Amino acid sequence: MFDVREFGAVGDGKAIDLPAINRTIEATGGMVYFSTGRYVCYSLRLKSAVSLYLDHDSVIVAAGTPREGTRSGYDPAESNAPGRRSRTQ
After folding, report:
1. d(CA 48, CA 77)
2. Residue 24 DSSP SS3
3. Residue 87, by phi and psi: left (phi above 0), alpha (psi -120 to 50) or beta?
4. How far apart are CA 81 and CA 65, in angstroms?
5. CB 87 within 8 A of CB 78
6. Digit-coded pLDDT (tens) for 7-55
């Protein structure tokens, strides 16, 4: 089990914790642990065989839309058109 706080997540409901959470996901092939807190994120990039464990009173919060001109933000939506394969297939 890998704790997102050990990778730099703050969980205060203000800081963008996405980089730390994605570092944690990359480091593990197993469980990613969120202790009590509010973790503000944009798009998470999950991998196969990775699970998220949210402890009591822990929440993953969708971050507000970033200001124009910033590099952070949400990944573009993927097509759900029939017959279209996802990027990972």
Report:
1. 20
2. helix
3. alpha
4. 26
5. yes
6. 999 999 999 999 999 999 999 878 999 999 999 999 888 888 999 999 9
